[in-house]
Every structure is written in structure tokens, then in C-alpha cells.
Write a structure and sequence with these properties.
alpha+beta; Phosphorylase Kinase, domain 1; six-stranded antiparallel beta sheet; globular
């Protein structure tokens, strides 16, 4: 489905121009996900609010990373291994990762949609007050768990 969107946008088969065309335009779908709107963008890629069409249009956030960050087969393989480990993390303060993969050369993560905003937005809303102690301790333990998971995946 993306291939049709990409080919129409860039008029050729060059994968670099295909990726650029995809990233420049918001597609209507991405794999089994329907994209509703772009909700964020940054140096690593874009985040879209979408729906999982295989789960009765369940709301999701789709993080599509720029292909340049995972140019080699080894980098893509490492991304997939580490992302699969993220799907195993379960904690009330972690947004669950539902799906990972590479679609049309673009690595992606699909997460539950957090309707109440991002961590960045939460911290901004608290500024200049400090983060509540329980929230800070929870985030610290999540960061430590993630580091341990990443190190284990590289062994």
C-alpha cells in the first residue's frame, strides 16, 4: 500500500527519493494501520495518531523513524531485536509497545495511544515545580530496566 503512495509521490523507484516522499507527505495507511494525523516530529522521525485496522480500529501511536538511522542490515537487525525486547516491558507507567517492524525500508514502533499527552508535555505542565517523588522513582526504575534489557540483548 505504501509503495503506491511512494511511487505516485516521487515518480520513480529510487528508494532514497521514495523514503523522502513518504516522510514529506502523510500517508493514509502504514501496513495494517490507518494514519489519522501527525502528532509529532523530530530528528529521529515522526509520530502519527492512528488506528489498528486489525483490532477494530484500536487507537495507536505509530513512530516511524528516518531510514538514515538504520542504514545497514546490522543496524536494522539490532533495532528489531531491541524493539522486540521493548514489547515485553509491562509497567503501569510505560506505554506498551504493540508492534515493531520495517515497512518500505522505514523502521517503526506501534504503541498504545496515550491520549493524555507525552512525558515531555507532562513535565512542561509541572514546570517549574519538581516532578512528584513517586513519578521520578518510577521513571528511574524504568530507565534502569531498559538499560538492563538492552545490554542483555547485545550478549
Amino acid at each position: 500500500m505504501l509503495e503506491c503512495i511512494i511511487t505516485q509521490e516521487c515518480g520513480g523507484n529510487n528508494s532514497h527519493s521514495s523514503v523522502a516522499a513518504f516522510m514529506a507527505n502523510i500517508p493514509q495507511s502504514f501496513g495494517k494501520y490507518r494514519i489519522l494525523e501527525e502528532i509529532a516530529r523530530g530528528s529521529f522521525g515522526r509520530v502519527y495518531r492512528g488506528e489498528d485496522t486489525s483490532r477494530h480500529n484500536h487507537p495507536v501511536a505509530i513512530k516511524v523513524m528516518h531510514a538514515a538511522h538504520l542504514a545497514s542490515p546490522q543496524e536494522r537487525s539490532t533495532f528489531l531485536q531491541e524493539a522486540q525486547l521493548l514489547t515485553m516491558l509491562r509497567h503501569p507507567h510505560i506505554v506498551p509497545v504493540l508492534d515493531v517492524g520495517i515497512e518500505e525500508e522505514l523502521p517503526y514502533l506501534v504503541m498504545e495511544y496515550a491520549a493524555n499527552g507525552s512525558l515531555h508535555q507532562r513535565l512542561q505542565s509541572l514546570a517549574p515545580r519538581p516532578l512528584p517523588l513517586q513519578d521520578a522513582l518510577t521513571m528511574r526504575s524504568v530507565r534502569l530496566a531498559r538499560r538492563c534489557t538492552m545490554r542483555t540483548s547485545r550478549m
